[in-house]
Design brief:
The complex is a heterodimer of chains A (264) and B (242).
Chain A lengths: L2 H28 L8 H40 L6 H39 L2 H7 L4 H40 L3 H13 L7 H26 L4 H32 L3
Chain B lengths: L1 E10 L2 E11 L4 E5 L6 H8 L7 E6 L2 E2 L5 H9 L1 E4 L11 H12 L4 H14 L15 H13 L5 E5 L7 H18 L2 E5 L3 H7 L2 E6 L2 E7 H6 L3 H7 L5
Parallel strand pairs in B: 3-8, 3-9, 6-7, 7-8
Antiparallel strand pairs in B: 1-2, 1-4, 4-5, 9-10
The chains are: A mainly alpha (264), B alpha/beta (242).
The structure holds adenosine-5'-triphosphate (ATP) and magnesium ion.
Chain lengths: 264, 242
């Protein structure tokens, strides 16, 4: 096959996949009114997601905050500006790092599990069985998962932010000689100074987390529902789910920051 | 009546069905046999509208299945039960919840009636002792019987059985065959049965067709087929066949 034809084929397959995800998201929005009937699955899924991701998220968030503090602290010390370390760590945790690491970990733990679960259902005819019973798989399977992730990703992000800022404070005190008082007061001030109920940094971060949660769940459900060809196909679906989630997290993160800070 | 006429279907790179024509008159059990991977399951999925033929027609009671909209498809599926190969139960629901699923999602039956009905069909397939177990913890044969209960729970007019006795021991197999024949005789259910088992074909079937290379290679009443000299009929139904 000539390389050009191969490239077009790949592009067509990618476009098809993207179209499927967008279509799935729209169909999920349409069935949102059915949510009250799915509350049991919704809570199950939310609880599972929380339990799966919580420990890893906490550990990674603590180290991410510490790295952030070190990284900026080294330069700040050179300019004798260590007193703004709390501000910088708090803002970058809330705006970028918190949502980002939470989402990546959710993609790796919960997204992969969703793809494996729905993929297994697909290849063992369970999705067809639902359709034969006139139960819409989007309503029954996708909706509770998407909403659960839309709830859990921001929730875990808040925790990540707090722990990340705390991780930064340890470095600030131990290695950079910034007093905890100064660190925490500048961190808190930076997050409350705008006078609004929620400062922009925090709500941009939470908005991102919400988008990430929806994106991870939708992409992972789509990968699972499109799985075929037995166990091998399920493995492939998991791989696709995690890969696409991470790509979307980075691209969406960029777009949101750009939208809120550079577009006015 | 289920009627497939000249159905062609390509899946992936292979053309699986190549001009399949098949008729299941009302109140009869049609047994579909054939080597593995020849498209028996694919055929059943055409009847219930999961697959659409590339060419040819699929009719149930004179209605064209592939051209149905969602409403019509739902109406058709309400009248059909489908036993999937291996049961296709939902893993996080108990056996009883699985069987109750088609009743709960669409009918407004009171809970007690749903429970009674579920209990009744689980009894019919000999599974009432396992009602509260989850599918991952039961055997393949039990999953299949739970799947059969789910297919029958709505009192369908048609049932599509995909290998209803795979993985069952001879005693339970025999009971399941009797159940399938009884469902036809007492409730005048029309059945399309995919099986590899001679016992199942002879015990539950009225007509038998053998699928090969995408179409029926040979077809006839059970008596005709058992005595047929056709090599496939001999392989599937002859004395040596199980
Ligand atoms: N959704 C699908 N996409 C692509 N190929 C498929 C799909 N479903 C089935 N096939 C292929 O169609 C062929 C026929 O499959 P089918 O499941 O109908 O076989 P079967 O006659 O039921 O065999 P068995 O007795 O093993 O159950 C197989 O080669 C299978 O790989
Ligand atoms: Mg099959």
């Amino acid at each position: 096959m000539n390389p050009f034809a191969k490239l077009t084929d790949t592009l067509i397959v990618r476009a098809e996949g993207a179209g499927y995800v967008v279509n799935l998201l729209l169909r999920t929005f349409v069935v949102v009114p059915h949510l009250p009937r799915r509350w049991r699955f919704l809570l199950d899924n939310a609880f599972n997601a929380g339990v799966r991701a919580l420990p890893v998220t906490m550990i990674v968030a603590a180290f991410a905050g510490a790295i952030l503090a070190m990284q900026t602290g080294i330069e700040l010390r050179r300019f004798g500006n260590s007193n703004v370390l709390g501000t910088i760590t708090a803002l970058s945790m809330c705006r970028e790092m918190g949502p980002f690491i939470t989402a990546v970990i959710l993609a790796a733990t919960v997204g992969s599990a969703i793809a494996a679960e729905l993929g297994t259902m697909k290849v063992s005819d369970e999705i067809d069985a639902l359709e034969v019973m006139s139960i819409d798989p989007v309503d029954y399977l996708v909706l509770p998962r998407v909403v659960a992730m839309a709830m859990m990703c921001p929730t875990l992000t808040v925790l990540s932010n707090l722990i990340g800022i705390y991780g930064g404070s340890v470095i600030a005190e131990q290695n950079l000689g910034v007093s905890p008082d100064l660190y925490w007061s500048s961190a808190i001030e930076s997050l409350t100074s705008s006078g609004t109920l929620l400062p922009k940094e925090a709500y941009v971060g939470l908005f991102k987390a919400l988008l990430f949660g929806v994106a991870i769940a939708t992409v992972s459900c789509a990968a699972g529902l499109r799985a075929r060809g037995g166990a091998l196909g399920v493995g492939l679906a998991v791989q696709v789910a995690v890969r696409n989630s991470v790509i979307l997290i980075i691209v969406l993160g960029f777009i949101v920051t750009w939208f809120f800070y550079f577009l006015d | 009546m289920i009627e497939l006429h000249d159905v062609h279907k390509r899946l992936g790179t292979r053309e699986i069905l190549r001009g399949l024509t098949l008729k299941v008159p009302k109140g009869m059990n049609f047994v579909l046999m054939g080597p593995s991977g020849t498209g028996k399951s694919v055929t059943l999925k055409h009847v219930i509208g999961i697959f659409k033929p590339d060419r040819g027609t699929v009719h149930v009671d004179g209605q064209d299945v592939p051209s149905m909209d969602n409403q019509q498809l739902m109406a058709l599926r309400k009248r059909m039960g489908y036993l999937f190969q291996n049961g296709a139960l939902i893993n996080w629901l108990t056996v009883a919840e699985n069987v109750a699923l088609p009743l709960k999602e669409h009918s407004r039956l009171p809970r007690s009636e749903v429970d009674d009905r579920v209990h009744q069909v689980l009894g019919m397939v000999g599974m009432d002792h396992a009602a509260q177990q989850f599918p991952p913890s039961i055997s393949g044969g039990m999953k299949l019987r739970a799947g059969l209960a789910r297919a029958l729970v709505t009192n369908p007019e048609y049932v599509l059985y995909d290998e209803p006795n795979a993985g069952l021991d001879p005693i339970i197999s025999h009971q399941i065959h009797e159940l399938i024949a009884e469902v036809r005789d007492r409730l005048s259910v029309t059945g399309l049965i995919v099986t590899h088992s001679r016992a199942c074909a002879v015990q539950c079937g009225d007509r038998i067709g053998i699928l090969e290379a995408g179409k029926l290679a040979v077809e006839g009443s059970v008596d005709e087929m058992v005595r047929s000299e056709h090599p496939l009929a001999k392989a599937f139904l002859g004395g040596g066949a199980d």
